[in-house]
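Support request, please re-run this one:
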Amino acid sequence: MTSGGLTRTYQLHLPQDYQRKRDWPLIVAYHGRGNTGEGTELFSNLSTLPAIVAYPDGVIGEGDGDRQAWQGAPYSAPGVDDVAFTNDLLDTLSATLCVDERRVYATGKSNGAGFVGILGCVLADRFAAIAPVAGAFYPNGIDCHPSRPVPVIDFHGTGDATIPYQGDADRGLPAIPDWVSDWAARDRCRIRLHDRTIDPDVTVSRWVGCARGAEVTHVAVTDGGHTWPGADSYSGGGYTTQTIEAHEVLWRFVRRYTL
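Re-run finished. Output below.
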């Protein structure tokens, strides 16, 4: 497809029983820096879910070899408006497929997850919930004032050496617990429940009592690397937990929400 004067590409997965007799939920999954939509489909298992899944491809950053990236990171291609591309992609999919526009969700890994954080801020009218994984939440100059409280489920490994769990001041990366707490405050959540540990290596934090029925959940993988939880193939460096499957956990969360 064409967006912003550029040719843009995406992988598209339709469920095996897809029929035009009803509208289907849609998941848009954004790859990490240097990856592709095809690569993300391989390790994420998102295509096993009962939803249409689109895996868009970023644009190669300036002076960045052949590594594709998304808006908001310091290495992304200058002048490329991936928010506008996302709007165009959603319009294209809605025009050609049976998409339930009330049930559209965004997920992504690393740089893609950082961009998902931007989408939560500026496209809350199009995404019912967001689910970043190992997110690279660089400073991006975008004021985050979503038009509605956005349900968020976030995954991150405490041993992530690429995007440190406790942040990286030199790169402007926040501590992940602070980023999640900011969303809980943004969604006007009143209660933080006691953390729940899932043996042996997963701790779940939840904020409830949020405005308009939203919820914020954080899934921390003890010693987890820069990886997609539950992945059976390479998704990044470090330890990959098999205690949970990220695609199953995020689906149980996001499917509760509609616009």
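The chain is about 20% helix and 25% strand. The domain at 2-254 is CATH 3.40.50.1820 (Rossmann fold).
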